[in-house]
Design brief:
209 residues; globular; 2 domains; alpha+beta; four-stranded antiparallel beta sheet; six-stranded mixed beta sheet; 4 helices; 10 strands
Length: 209
């Protein structure tokens, strides 16, 4: 078989030792990687599996107002672990200037800054220190908020601070996954097995070099 190129469609670290990746072998087929297991699929087979996955998601998330098509694929991949605790959804409009965006601050620590319009930056990337956001592609759809937090989860849209934007507020059991005004505190002092494992891997890789 020829293999002119491989394009990664999506990837996810499920747990410290479990990884999932979908690749498109250009000119061949699409395949899944689950750790050391590889499953080859045709495009038609992939679409059939995608439909079954949609059904499985709706079985696991009974919230009637949750619709997959309301969310960007990258957002769903990033926050898929939260959805099992989803208990409600509110929709409406809000003044954009009242919201905040997540970005990296000093030493890569997460911080929140009030949005000011005029461009957007995907969550987690650096932005200017004055709180503005960087220019980028427009994001269609609503901004997503968790519980009662004013922090936008995901991409910050390219709109003016005085404009109103549609929002989806996802409510989670026991207010889980809320982002406060000082997210660096949780980042420094709340660790799980996955973060510890990733840190150990990075240290090991540096020692090997």
């Amino acid at each position: 078989m020829s293999n002119p190129g491989v394009l990664t469609l999506t990837k996810k670290q499920i747990s410290p030792k479990r990884y999932f990746r979908v690749e498109d072998n250009l000119g061949e087929a699409i395949h899944f990687h689950y750790n050391d297991i590889r499953v080859d699929l045709t495009v038609r087979e992939l679409l059939l599996i995608a439909k079954e996955c949609d059904r499985a998601i709706y079985d696991l998330i009974p919230e009637k107002d949750f619709h997959i098509e309301d969310y960007d694929g990258d957002f769903l991949n990033r926050y898929s672990h939260c959805l099992i605790d989803l208990v409600g959804i509110e929709k409406g409009e809000i003044l954009f200037g009242r919201l905040y965006g997540l970005r990296k601050g000093f030493f890569g620590l997460p911080v929140v800054r009030r949005v000011s319009g005029g461009g957007k930056v995907p969550e987690g990337r650096d932005a200017p220190g004055d709180g503005t956001v960087l220019e980028g592609r427009d994001t269609a759809g609503s901004v997503v908020l968790f519980n009662d937090s004013p922090v936008i989860m995901g991409d910050v849209p390219s709109v003016g601070a005085a404009e109103t934007v549609p929002f989806i507020r996802m409510k989670f059991r026991n207010n889980k996954y809320s982002v406060g005004m000082h997210p660096w505190v949780q980042f420094l002092f709340c660790w799980d097995k996955k973060r510890i494992w990733n840190l150990m891997k990075k240290v090991y890789e540096r020692i090997r070099k």
